[in-house]
Design goal:
This protein is α/β, with parallel strands linked by helices and 237 residues long. It has one domain: Rossmann fold (3-Layer(aba) Sandwich), CATH 3.40.50. A 6-stranded mixed β-sheet has the order 6-7-8-3-9-10, sandwiched between helices. A hairpin with a 2-residue loop joins strand 9 and strand 10. Helix 4 runs antiparallel to helix 6. The longest helix has 16 residues. Bound molecules: adenosine-5'-triphosphate (ATP) and magnesium ion (MG). The site of magnesium ion has 4 residues, from helix 1.
Length: 237
Amino acid sequence: MLLLEVQNLSAAYADGVEVLHNISLTVREGEMVTLIGANGAGKTTTLRAIMGLLRGRGTVKFKGENILGRETPDIARLGLSMVPEGRGVFPGLSVYDNLRIATTPWYGRGMSMANDLDRVYALFPILAERRTQLGWSLSGGQQQMLAIGRAIMARPKLMLLDEPSLGLAPNLVEEVFEKLKSINEQGVSILLVEQNAFMALEYSKLAYIIERGTVSAQMTSEALMQDESIKAAYLGG
Ligand SMILES: Nc1ncnc2c1ncn2[C@@H]1O[C@H](COP(=O)(O)OP(=O)(O)OP(=O)(O)O)[C@@H](O)[C@H]1O
Ligand SMILES: [Mg+2]
């Protein structure tokens, strides 16, 4: 089943300069899909436009429903959640409060937060251990886990992640990807932006290449690994 369908999405920032031009991509239920592209290509802007953080033109459908032009909290409520670049951990809040702040509309209707917290703590035991500590006291890798945990608290069907491995030591990069794999296996689809293309392609089956605000190629990770020109451009040859 098609979960996310983006068709001819164009978008501009407040300065009026259009940075996305007719982006089309899809994510099927259960898939993990990667967006690859050079600095400034429009990867972050694509995620932001899907999330309603930026006004766009075209079509963005989630579970068959058009979400373009809707407010971000409404989009989140439908089952989309984003882990922004730079993690966005609230430094003055404890780990627990960082998780709790991602409240869901189910609470107070016979559903409690306990199950969601248990799920996050089972996935990231370090967050349970550190739950009373402040967000800023965590290491970079732990903050990334916290940001992912917070996104899970909102019970997404689809998670958008912007460069989750940025600035992490190689062993932590692998750990983050292993966690994403488990989350994906638990039924959450994933749309991922990654500079660390090798790692991302190892974990996802399908990739889109974004060049100057447009999708220039869509291929399986396997085919991409074999394409010499793409390898040279995005995978360091
Ligand atoms: N707030 C903003 N206002 C105006 N232009 C912006 C803004 N943010 C980004 N841009 C421009 O939009 C274009 C796409 O940027 P975007 O951040 O989406 O690229 P990216 O692919 O995520 O790059 P990176 O790999 O560096 O994160 C760039 O030309 C950038 O300069
Ligand atoms: Mg970016």
